[in-house]
Structures are given as structure tokens and as C-alpha cells.
């Protein structure tokens, strides 16, 4: 493995993540792209973009509020308008926002403040003043995400609003050395969460208890934010519902999980599939197919290849029970991972075949595959996160997944342990002897022999 794994603390005797370099290189990259563009400035409301530009953070509770905003003008330094006292805190602790560039400012609280309060107009006026002072008022301003009242207020103030998302995505698509280290560290923490989950799962444990366990492991290790734990088991596996419940795990269940969290802002998206106590032949077969599609895709990853090359080895939606690619979206999927779960590049037969994107060294993305079992209710889901290197890629999600893992202790009988590969219900794992009138457990690694009808 070429990438180093460090502890999560800072030390003086080892160079780990250099946060000063991280802040500097991120800002330099977006400034360079802005200088090469036709935009006069970038206006950001999205927390991930704000963090990339200003290296500020006030907690994940603010992730979806669109209340904070920052402006990056051509040739200038970023200006941050933050939530109440957070602005003063940044003045004390964020010296890179010096010269009065950390200011109080608030948007409309997603419409909670009445239009008559004039908050949208206040935001627009703050931006107008800064643009006018720099001679940029007539230039287009790229915006990532904003509330309709703020959009209308900016336009009324004479500001030409255009899409700034592509410029910001292009800045974030290739990761710096420190970003890659943080992403690798985040994956290491999920390795540990899966280890604990594997050792703890058993029949009777509920999906929500699995979610709670993963949260505890990650927060104990220093996670900044557990964005979600997708816990899916049993007949809920097919079709994939993308949300956990309080369903109890049962013997023979498939159970797959997606763990999404961040370490210093940098995310994971990391699926694993288990079987509880035993696995049916149909689930084993589905897992092998799911793994095939994933490994075939990983084998194609290298600089100069395209997203179209990768998705070409994935099955069409109709091959696994969906009418079209939109209906099957995100089941055979890939996406960039950084300060957000879904960044460039995107891998999907829905868009990538007709609109391919080039794979570049330093990209970090996740590839995830799904395959339904022939029994009609179970399924397998696997995902690997990887870093594109000069001649290929390095996978940074290390919890074992080359074969289906069985969680929970094996069952002991007078004849030894039950096979780990067996059908879900006992009646499908025995052979009947109508003469002796006995049912004998099959000992052929779970394969079911001929079923005989007992005599009346």
C-alpha cells in the first residue's frame, strides 16, 4: 500500500496532515480556476463549498440551512458572512480570515423569516457593495445553491447570477495530498466500525441497533459527523429501500450496510454485505456476481480512461429487473467523494456512456454494485472507495469483501456445526427417508438433495 495510515491526532514527531497546506492549496486551486473563467466572483451557500474556500465550519446542523454565505471575488480574498456569534469566533480562531473578512450575516432561514423582514435584500446588498468596490458589479457571479428570494433579490440589485457549481466541482475533483490522507483516515475508521458490527451481529439484533453501534464506534474514534448508516436486511434487501428500520435480523438473512461519515469534513461511502448465521446458495451466487461487476470496473480505472469505459462492464438495467437506467439509478454507480458524498466524477449508464468524463490521477471516488438473488428477495451490495494513482488505483476501503462473510456464531448440533451455506428454512436442508421415517440434515455444504414424499 503506497498510502500511509496515521493516527487521528496531530504530533510533532511525524508529518501527518498539514492543515495549513490543506487550506492554502484548496484556496489556490479555486482561485486559479476562477481567474481562468469568465466569472467576476463566486458566491457560495453550500457548506462543503464554503469550507473548501474559507476553511470554516460551524457544525453539521447547518448543513442544509443555506444561511451562511461567502464571496470569492476575482483577484481577492474570500469574505465570510456567518451565523451570529460564529463570525466573532472566526475572528479569534481563524487568522486566515483576517482584515475584517469574518462578518455576521444571515439569509432567510429557508423562508422562516418573513419576506417583509428584508433578509434576502440584505444578503443581496452585502454582495452588491463588495462587487461594486472591486469594479465587478457588471460581471457574472457564479452561485452554487440559494433560496429563490435571494436569487430574485440579487437580480433586482443588478447582479447577473449564473451557475457556479461546475467551477467548484472542477476545483474539488482532484484531491490534494492532505485531502487524500483525510479520506484514507475516514475509511480506516469505517474499517473498525465494520469489524465491530461483524463481531456483534446475531439473530434478534435490530437494524437500528446496528446503526447505533456504528455511530458509537465512529464518534469514539473521532468522527466529525455520521451522515448516515444504511442498514438493510432480509426481504428489505430487494428492492433497495435506502433507509433503515427496527427490523430484527433473522437466521439466513442477507444484511448490507452503507456507512457515510466524515473526518475533518472528508467523507466515506462504503457498502458491505453479510449473511446472518448462514447464507443460501442464491445469496452466495448473487454476491459473486456483484463482486464480479465491481472488480471488473476497478480493473479499468487508470488515468486517461473514462467513466464510459468503466460503466461499459456493468449490466443494463433490464438485466436485473428494471425498465430503464433511471429506474435502476445508483445501483450500479460511482461517484467522487470529498467534502461531500457525491462529487465529480459520476459513473452511471444513465449519463456516462453518452457524456464520459476523463479519469485523472488524484481523483478519489467510490464504485458500488448491486445484484438481486434468484430467490426474489435477497440481494448483495458492495462498494469500494479508491484513489487514482499514476498507473491505476489504490483501494482504501479494507474491510474484507472478496467473499460473503457470515456474521453470528455457527449453530452446533449433535452432528457438528450446521453448514454456513444453507437454505434459510430447515425443511429445505434435509433429506427424507420414508422407510426409516427420519429426516437427515444434508452434509453437502448446504446443497439440498432429492426430496422424498413420506408414506401416509
Element string (H = helix, E = strand): HEHEEHEHEHEHHHEEEEHHEEEEEEEEEE
Structural class: alpha+beta
- DSSP, total strands: 20
Summarize the main sheet.
6 strands, mixed
User: What fraction of the residues are assigned to beta strands by DSSP?
Assistant: 15-25%
Portion of residues within helices = 25-40%
Number of helices: 10
Low-confidence stretches: 444-456
Shape descriptor reads elongated
Strand order of the largest sheet: 4-3-2-1-5-6
Please, what is the average pLDDT?
Answer: 94
Q: How far do the termini sit from each other? A: 65 Å
Which descriptors would you attach to this protein?
456 residues, alpha+beta, 5-stranded mixed beta sheet, 20 strands, disordered C terminus
Can you walk through the features of this model?
- The chain contains ten helices and 20 strands.
- With 456 residues, the chain is of the alpha+beta class.
- The strands form five sheets. A six-stranded mixed sheet has the order 4-3-2-1-5-6, with helices on both faces. Strands 7, 8, 9, 10 and 16 form a five-stranded mixed sheet that branches. Strands 12-11-13-14-15 form a five-stranded antiparallel sheet.
- The longest helix is centred in the middle third of the chain and has 24 residues, at 177-200.
- The radius of gyration is 26 Å and the shape is elongated.
- The termini are far apart.
- The relative contact order is 0.11.
- The model is unreliable at 444-456 (pLDDT under 50).
Amino acid at each position: 500500500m503506497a498510502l500511509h495510515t496515521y493516527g487521528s491526532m496531530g504530533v510533532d514527531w511525524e508529518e501527518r496532515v498539514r492543515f495549513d497546506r490543506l487550506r492554502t492549496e484548496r484556496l489556490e486551486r479555486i482561485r486559479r480556476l476562477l481567474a481562468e473563467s469568465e466569472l467576476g466572483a463566486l458566491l457560495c451557500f453550500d457548506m462543503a463549498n464554503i469550507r473548501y474556500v474559507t476553511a470554516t465550519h460551524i457544525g453539521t446542523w447547518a448543513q442544509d440551512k443555506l444561511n451562511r454565505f461567502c464571496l470569492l471575488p476575482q483577484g481577492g480574498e474570500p469574505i465570510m458572512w456567518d451565523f451570529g456569534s460564529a463570525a466573532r469566533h472566526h475572528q479569534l480562531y481563524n487568522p486566515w480570515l483576517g482584515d475584517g473578512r469574518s462578518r455576521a450575516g444571515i439569509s432567510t432561514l429557508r423562508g422562516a423569516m418573513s419576506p417583509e423582514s428584508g433578509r434576502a435584500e440584505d444578503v443581496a446588498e452585502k454582495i452588491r457593495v463588495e462587487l461594486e468596490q472591486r469594479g465587478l458589479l457588471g460581471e457574472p457571479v457564479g452561485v452554487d445553491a440559494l433560496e429563490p428570494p435571494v436569487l430574485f433579490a440579487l437580480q433586482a440589485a443588478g447582479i447577473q447570477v449564473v451557475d457556479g457549481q461546475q467551477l467548484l466541482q472542477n476545483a474539488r475533483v482532484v484531491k490534494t495530498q492532505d485531502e487524500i490522507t483525510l479520506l484514507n483516515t475516514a475509511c480506516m475508521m469505517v474499517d473498525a466500525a465494520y469489524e465491530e458490527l461483524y463481531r456483534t451481529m446475531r439473530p434478534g439484533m435490530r437494524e437500528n441497533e446496528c446503526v447505533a453501534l456504528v455511530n458509537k464506534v465512529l464518534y469514539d474514534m473521532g468522527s466529525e459527523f455520521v451522515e448516515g448508516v444504511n442498514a438493510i436486511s432480509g426481504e428489505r434487501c430487494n428492492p433497495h429501500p435506502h433507509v433503515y428500520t427496527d427490523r430484527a435480523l433473522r437466521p439466513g438473512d442477507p444484511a448490507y450496510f452503507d456507512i457515510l461519515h466524515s473526518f475533518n469534513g472528508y467523507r466515506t461511502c462504503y457498502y458491505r454485505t453479510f449473511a446472518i448465521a448462514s447464507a443460501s446458495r442464491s445469496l452466495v451466487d448473487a454476491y459473486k456476481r456483484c463482486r464480479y461487476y465491481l472488480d471488473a470496473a476497478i480493473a479499468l480505472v487508470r488515468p486517461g480512461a473514462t467513466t464510459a469505459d468503466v460503466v461499459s462492464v456493468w449490466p443494463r438495467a433490464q438485466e436485473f429487473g428494471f425498465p430503464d437506467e433511471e429506474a435502476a439509478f445508483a445501483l450500479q454507480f460511482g461517484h467522487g467523494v470529498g467534502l461531500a458524498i457525491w462529487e465529480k466524477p459520476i459513473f452511471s449508464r444513465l449519463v456516462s456512456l453518452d457524456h464520459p468524463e476523463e479519469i485523472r490521477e488524484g481523483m478519489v471516488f467510490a464504485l458500488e454494485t448491486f445484484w438481486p438473488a434468484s430467490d426474489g428477495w435477497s440481494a448483495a451490495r458492495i462498494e469500494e472507495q479508491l484513489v487514482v494513482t499514476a498507473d491505476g488505483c489504490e483501494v482504501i476501503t479494507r474491510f474484507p469483501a472478496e467473499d460473503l462473510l457470515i456474521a453470528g456464531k455457527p449453530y452446533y448440533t449433535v452432528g457438528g456445526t450446521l453448514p454456513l451455506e444453507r437454505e434459510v428454512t430447515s425443511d429445505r436442508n434435509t433429506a427424507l427417508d420414508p422407510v426409516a421415517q427420519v429426516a437427515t440434515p444434508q452434509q453437502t455444504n448446504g446443497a439440498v438433495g432429492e426430496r422424498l414424499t413420506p408414506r401416509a
